[in-house]
């Protein structure tokens, strides 16, 4: 684990389902009904309560649009909440993918504040099944989070949880360079 930004940003390599933050973020899809990757891991480890809460949200508002976020219980996970956000599928960069990915981070953080969340952990949204280039995604994630933290005092800590070495190294390089 490495700390940056006066301790407000933490970088961890590992499994987000194990993180004891107020909220962990899920890289979901528009259906909110689960899938592979980190979404599958979160639903598996958190249990049926999370899916039930997602179904209830769907029944109210329908699909969750790309770039938007919703919040549920974290079921059996050590976190209190799961914030489900839908990253963009990478299509070469001409379909507003970069803006949509930034929206995921900003909307998740805003929802966190609305729910009095002080510590929040993010996976590397869109960089798996949705094929967003890892280097671009890391830069956008860090820039969005830093911008948000500058303007919102109530979040104590943002944890970036990288699952693979490549993303961990990219985050480390960018965060170190900007210290
Ligand atoms: N903890 C932290 N990060 C993880 C974990 C984990 N347990 N497992 C995977 N990752 P992906 P996407 C990393 O594919 O690209 C699902 O089917 C993974 O290495 O989970 O946004 C959804 O339902 C990668 O760096 O999400 C959607 O249909 C990152 O999490 C679709 O995949 C994101 O990879 C979303 O695709």
TrEMBL record:
| Database matches in Pfam families | Macro
Where does the signal sequence lie?
A: none
Start and end residues of each Macro domain: 1-179
Family annotation (SUPFAM superfamilies) = Macro domain-like
The record's listing under InterPro entries reads: Macro_dom (IPR002589), Macro_dom-like (IPR043472)
Protein name per UniProt: O-acetyl-ADP-ribose deacetylase
